[in-house]
Structure formats: structure tokens, C-alpha cells
Amino acid sequence: MSLSVTHFTFGVGLLGGPGVGTTALVLRLKDDRFVSNQNVSTIHDSCLKVLPIDDKTVCKLRIYDNVFKENPGFTPVNLYRGISCAILVYSLSDKLSLFHVKAWADEYERNHGGVLFMMGNKCDEEREVPWEDADQLYDAIGCKKHFLVSAKTGEGIEAAFKEIAEYLVEDEQEDEQQRDIIMLGETNGTSTDTSSGSCGC
Ligand SMILES: Nc1nc2c(ncn2[C@@H]2O[C@H](COP(=O)(O)OP(=O)(O)O)[C@@H](O)[C@H]2O)c(=O)[nH]1
Ligand SMILES: [Mg+2]
Q1: Domain boundaries, position 170
Q2: Residue from 117, 92, 91 nearest 13 by CA
Q3: Distant-in-sequence, close-in-space partners of 158: CB < 8 Å, separation ≥ 6
Q4: CA-to-CA distance for 201 and 15, rounded, in angstroms?
Q5: How far apart are CA 115 and CA 120, in angstroms?
Q6: Which residues are in the CB-under-5-Å shell of ion ligand 2?
Q7: Where are the beta strands (DSSP E) in 16-114?
Q8: How many CA atoms lie within 13 A of 3 on its CB side?
Q9: What's the confidence (pLDDT) of residue 72?
Q10: Ligand 1 binding pocket includes 92 (Cβ within 6 Å)
Q11: Is residue 161 a contact partner of residue 147, using CB atoms and an 8 Å limit?
Q12: DSSP tally for the chain: helices H, then strands E
């Protein structure tokens, strides 16, 4: 007996200010290595991560580095092409990088909109960003999950991307169920409104 496997694919954008480690994260995910003071031109700007969710489900994440970091206001719109969600990356050892997170969240909302996650990188270094500050911002922006990782040691990275994949798959499956309910309602000629907050006018 052969089990059929469902494949999901999502594009994920890494957004954050210069030096937070988005290129190092892509390198860790792609080649499982870390290079100090890497030469950006030798580094890939995306990678594909394949994550089995369960026996019947596989999730592929195409993860894009952000090479236009200097100013969120001037980000080319095509940076967001093919992206289903974004991860706002900051450095746990650089307080200023947390301020950039808000700017990137606003920029993403303006150009694209959608699910956001937050990721504090460099957890191997001495911590300068207080948890409360990061958590407050996380709530204010409305991020779905918050991860602490290190591209240098690899700590937390596999688990973080697995959780992100699980979240995206679950979200997509719920959307599919909603679409099925709506189509069934239309076929039966019954009311199709399943949203709890609908005013019905
Ligand atoms: N200690 C430590 N250094 C890191 C980590 N990730 C990146 N770096 C270093 O931080 C600097 C900037 O990293 P890079 O990936 O180029 O940042 P980007 O500008 O966000 O792409 C480089 O010197 C990296 O070696 C990490 O997890 N821990
Ligand atoms: Mg870079």
C-alpha cells in the first residue's frame, strides 16, 4: 500500500537591518556552516529547506535573504515576490537592531502584508536586548511566534523553521477547509458565511 504525501511550498523572507545575521542564517540553513565576516558576494541569497511535518505531509520552505538592508523605505517591491510570510530578524547583542524591526514590519505591511514571525539571532553572544522589550514589540506588531537562535552555533534554528513550517501548513489547511465549506454551501444553495464577526449587511 502506498501512502500519498501532500507537499506544501512557501516562500519566506528574512527581513532586518544590516549585520543582524540574515546571510549567516541562510548559510546555516543551506550548508550547515558558519563563516565569520563572510564576503557577501560568495553567499547564496536563498535556500530550500525541506521539512517533514508528519507521515503524510512535507513542507518546503524557500527562504530568501534580504540584500537590500540599508533602508526599508527603498526596498524594491520584487523582494516580496513569491513570499508567503516574513521573519523579522534582529540581533540579541545589538539593541538598535530591535528598532529596525518595527520599520521592517511597517514596510512589509505597506508592500505585502501577511503573517510575520520574529527571530532574535546571536543568542551565543552576551545579550543586550531585554526580553521584555522584544516581547512588547512582538505583541505590538502582532507576530505569530518569536524565536531565539544562533546562526553561529546552529542553536534553535531547526526547531524554529520546523515550527514555522507547521504553522504555515496548519494555516493553509484551515484555509482549504474554509474554501471547501464555502463551495459545499454554494452547491447546496445554503448560506456560506462562516465568519464569526460578519454583520450580514
Ligand atoms: N556571534 C555570532 N555572530 C554572528 C551570528 N550570525 C552572524 N554573525 C556575524 O555577524 C556579522 C553579520 O552577519 P551577516 O550574516 O553578514 O549579517 P546580515 O547583514 O544580516 O546579512 C558577521 O560578522 C557574522 O559572522 C551569530 O549567530 N552569532
Ligand atoms: Mg547579508
Answers
A1: 6-188
A2: 117
A3: none
A4: 39
A5: 17
A6: 23
A7: 46-54, 57-64, 85-91
A8: 8
A9: 67
A10: no
A11: no
A12: 4, 6
Q: Which atom of ligand 1 is nearest to the CA of 24?
A: 15
Residues whose CB is less than 8 angstroms from the CB of residue 77 and which lie 6 or more positions away in sequence, other chains included: 111
Q: Give the chain's mean pLDDT.
A: 86
Instruction: Write out pLDDT tens, residues 162-178.
Output: 999 999 999 999 888 88
- Give the full edge-to-edge strand order of the sheet including 85-91: 46-54, 57-64, 6-15, 85-91, 115-121, 146-148
Q: Which three cell numbers stand for residue 50?
A: 525541506
CATH at residue 51 = 3.40.50.300
Q: Is residue 200 pLDDT above 90, yes or no? A: no
> Is 197 domain-assigned?
no
Report pLDDT digits (tens) over 172-198. Answer: 998 888 887 877 777 777 544 433 333
> Residue 181: inside a domain, yes or no?
yes
18 ligand 1 Cβ < 6 A? yes
- The confidence band for 111, taking pLDDT boundaries of 50, 70 and 90, is confident
**pLDDT more than 90, % of the chain:** 61
Task: Tell whether ligand 1 has an atom less than 6 A from the beta carbon of residue 76.
Answer: no
